[in-house]
Amino acid sequence: MEDEIVNKVAASALEVFDLEDYYPKGQRVTIDISQWLIDGFLLKEKEFRAALKVHDWSQYEGSYVAISCSTDAIVPAWTTILIALYLNEHAIFSASGTIEDLDSLLYKNLLSKIDFSIYQDKMVIIKGCARKPVPTNAYIMAAQHLQLYAKGIMYGEACSAVPLFKKSKSKV
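Below the sequence we write its predicted structure tokens.
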């Protein structure tokens, strides 16, 4: 008689939390403020505002936009805010910083809307090995939310998960 091969991972009570399932679809774009600065460093307000007025903002339609400056120029905070206001009519979302900063903010918003109570007293694996560029901050935020409910949290794949957290048994 042959021994049947049993998939212990499939038969286990592990719940998989995959951040890729929540990855917002859409193009990510960076706007570099330095394109509107003299020699990439000097901001002249009148010229800056004039350049923004004639810029083709429609190219960001339906995109997620990170607003940053590739030079070491020191620009006032209002410059990023003004650009974001122009983007508001076209982009899905915009934020100051890198694409990773942008994605971190998107995940913060998304994760705050998930009902994590469905993981109450369950063993959860936060799936690693993402094919999409899920930022590290998203994993941290997911773990923090899950810690409030899960019996235990692991990271990786079921076959090689790294334990991160196990709820201690309280003594009554």
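Residues 8-24+115-166 form one domain.
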